[in-house]
Amino acid sequence: MIPLSWYLILAALLFCIGLYGVLARKNAVAILMSIELMLNAVNINLVAFWRYFTPQTIGGHVFAVIVFVVAAAEVAIGLALIISIYRRRKTVAADEINLMKW
Amino acid sequence: MTAMQGVFLFAAGLILWAAFMMVTRQNLVHAAFYLILALFGVAILFVLLDAGFLAVIQVSVYIGAISIMMIFAVMLTRGDVIEEDPVNKNYGWALLLAALFAFGLIILIGQWPAVASLAGDFDSSRDLARELGVALFSPQGFVIPSEVASVLLLAALIGSLVVARRQKGK
What we know:
The complex is a heterodimer.
Chain A: H1 4-24, H2 28-53, H3 59-89
Chain B: H1 3-24, H2 28-48, H3 52-76, H4 91-111, H5 128-137, H6 143-164
Helix pairs in contact in B: 1-2, 2-3
């Protein structure tokens, strides 16, 4: 049998890989992909807690579905912003989008 | 080592390897394909956790829709698909922060006594998709969160259309 800690440690590592990607990558599309990794780490935790602690209810599934919805909305808005920026600036490198940088 | 542990370790190795390759690839198209591999590993974990319906949603929504949208965005912004240097100049701090975060999280997980608990028995004849549908749309359940989520999706749909539309005269 698999103890709960395996899932938690895997999700922690996946979250941190995504965090590194968000902070270090230059390309805005790659940053969005890394955010997807972080959301998936959260989802692993939610479903694991559901299975180990409250499998008789369905609340854990509802949480995971809401995370799916938020991820889809976030990707749609994020990609629209990236395409709009690319049209104006001809670049999607995050460190060149510095108009409002102090 | 039981078969389930073997499957878990395989899926975990697949996810971590694919995620690492994703954040380090220079070619964005390769990164998108590694992202799909990592999402598929997460779907395997959902099956291991007896959440088969969520695994189906994971494959159809994440792999079928979100990853394809990523690949579309890569194609539409193809000015820099291959970057000479995929990381910015602060990547050392990012690496340090991510490593510290992972270290701290694993310490915290190790201090919690409940992490050694094993999963209880699961009645595999339950129809989880049906239960989820009833919970999402019954007033005793989660009808308000699900309506808010659908309004959020509609707002995202209209908002992304407005933002990405070509302005007149440009």
